[in-house]
From TrEMBL:
Region (Disordered): 1-94
Subcellular location: Cell membrane
Protein name in UniProt: AI-2E family transporter
UniProt entry tagged with the keyword Lyase: no
Sequence ranges of Basic and acidic residues compositional bias: 18-29
Compositionally skewed regions (Low complexity) per UniProt: 1-15, 32-41, 57-73
Cross-referenced InterPro entries: AI-2E-like
Organism of origin: Streptomyces xanthochromogenes
Stretches with biased composition (Pro residues): 42-56
UniProt keyword annotations, A-Z: Cell membrane, Membrane, Transmembrane, Transmembrane helix, Transport
Membrane disposition: Multi-pass membrane protein
Pfam families attached to this UniProt entry: AI-2E_transport
Length: 473
């Protein structure tokens, strides 16, 4: 039994040395991981010589603090963060997987972002066109009312400046405008119906003259070929009698729709002339408050652009109709006045309308007065159109509604596909107004950014010309 205390003493010393080595290795690992080493008070060696002597009871007074460790572990702080040991050095290194977004090239991410935005925009435009097609009668009537209002509103303003009340000025302007347009329409119909018999006889004579010219022409056209063409045309008309009858019935429906649209346009024009400012204020209240100042400034500029376009187009169309009408009148073409009115109306369709109305005048001259007279009418139409394109439009319309010819052609084609003739008429003023609004909002955003930068830097404000007065430059 005398050897047992010695063995226990050596075992305790070995355990003590093993604990010290473990503490040293933990300190080295913490140093490599950048952590603060944890200092653990050394554990006193365990004595196995016998039971320790009994100590007297501690005094009730607290022991005085000393710089040496007491040998007893103090309780750990409850709020101290728990120590997480690092992985062992022999553990294999595992590389972190990259973010999938970082694996996609930057150019592809930009293309994808632009692509889905374009898809959303295309879908929105498609839905909008479907809605417009469903209520095309109401939309075209309201747009026509806007165009008529833009034409008549300066007259209302002039009458108000003369001292007339707003209601009386609106009534006089609207009634006189509608009466003038109605008289023009009645005059055209009267001229066509009055000259219909004479025109049909001249058309038959013109067809006979064209037949003789084709027989004597160097194209070697025979009379049998001409008769065969006439027979095929007659058979086609006879075989499609049902379709022609159906088209006539549809024409009645179209006539009812046109009359309904005219009534809607008249009522809309009256309200726009009388309560235009209140209607615009109501529209502004629908706009979010953050965007309201910009929209409030863009509205008057858009209206001035629309007014300049309508007034300039009316003046240019009137000059075209007068000049071409005088030319075909002196050339002896029948129905010169109705043709001049058609030229005036078709002039509201830029580029395309001038070609169609000029071709109509040439065809009438060809079937009534022969090839030579048709060539003379063609020269008159081309001369007037050249003067219009190079002198009248730049001088009258000016910069307010300047739109590139390619944009004009594309907008007229798109408007014709969506809304027919009405869509072709309103396409160009819509593009012109959109161009004005976008330009104003871009300039307004730059001015706001400049003012915000000056406010942040604390610099004195620089005088910036408001974008509202940009049209006076």
């Amino acid at each position: 039994m005398s050897r047992v205390p010695g063995l226990l003493g050596r075992l305790g010393a070995g355990l003590t040395r093993m604990g010290e080595r473990l503490d040293e290795r933990r300190a080295e690992a913490d140093a490599e991981a950048g952590l603060d080493p944890v200092i653990v008070d050394p554990v006193p060696p365990v004595s196995v010589q016998g039971p320790p002597p009994r100590k007297p009871p501690a005094a009730t007074t607290a022991p005085e603090p000393s710089g040496e460790p007491s040998g007893e572990l103090e309780p750990a702080d409850e709020h101290a963060p728990e120590h997480v040991p690092p992985p062992p050095t022999y553990a294999p290194a595992v590389s972190a997987r990259p973010d999938p977004v970082d694996a996609v090239p930057w150019s592809m991410r930009v293309a994808a972002a632009v692509g889905w935005r374009l898809l959303v925009l295309a879908g929105s435009i498609y839905v909008l066109t479907q809605i417009i097609s469903a209520v095309s009668l109401v939309v075209l009537a309201f747009v026509a009312a806007l165009l008529i209002t833009a034409l008549l509103q300066p007259t209302v303003a002039r009458l108000k400046r003369m001292g007339l009340p707003r209601g009386l000025a609106t009534a006089l302007t609207a009634i006189s405008g509608f009466v003038i347009m109605g008289l023009v329409g009645w005059f055209v119909v009267w001229q066509v119906m009055d000259n219909l018999d004479d025109l049909s006889s001249k058309v038959r004579a013109g067809i006979e003259e064209l037949k003789r010219w084709a027989l004597n022409s160097p194209f070697h056209v025979t009379e049998d070929q001409i008769n065969q063409i006439a027979k095929n045309l007659s058979d086609t008309i006879g075989a499609n009698t049902n379709e022609i009858t159906t088209a006539g019935l549809q024409g009645v429906t179209v006539l009812v729709e046109v009359l309904t649209g005219i009534l809607l346009a008249m009522f809309s024009t009256l309200f726009l002339l009388y309560d235009g400012p209140k209607i615009w204020q109501w529209v502004l209240n629908l706009v979010p408050e953050a965007a309201r100042p910009g929209v409030a400034g863009a509205g008057p500029k858009a209206w001035r652009t629309l007014t300049a376009y309508v007034r300039g187009t009316v003046i240019v169309a009137l000059i075209d109709a007068i000049c071409i009408g005088i030319g075909i009148y002196f050339l002896g073409v029948p129905m010169a006045v109705p043709l001049a009115v058609f030229i005036f109306l078709f002039a509201f369709i830029p580029l395309v309308g001038a070609v169609v109305s000029g071709a109509l005048a040439v065809v009438v001259a060809l079937v009534t007065d022969g090839v030579f007279n048709a060539l003379m009418v063609l020269l008159v139409v081309l001369a007037v159109q050249q003067i219009e394109g190079h002198v009248l439009q730049p001088f009258i319309l000016g910069r307010a509604v300047r739109v590139h010819p390619l944009a004009v052609v594309l907008s007229v084609a798109a408007g014709g596909l969506v809304g027919g003739i009405g869509g072709a008429v309103v396409a160009v003023p819509l593009v012109a107004v959109t161009n004005t609004v976008v330009g104003y909002l871009r300039k307004y955003s730059r001015e706001n950014a400049l003012r915000s930068a000056q406010a942040i830097e604390g610099a004195p404000p620089v005088a910036v010309v408001p974008a509202v007065t940009a049209d006076r430059e």
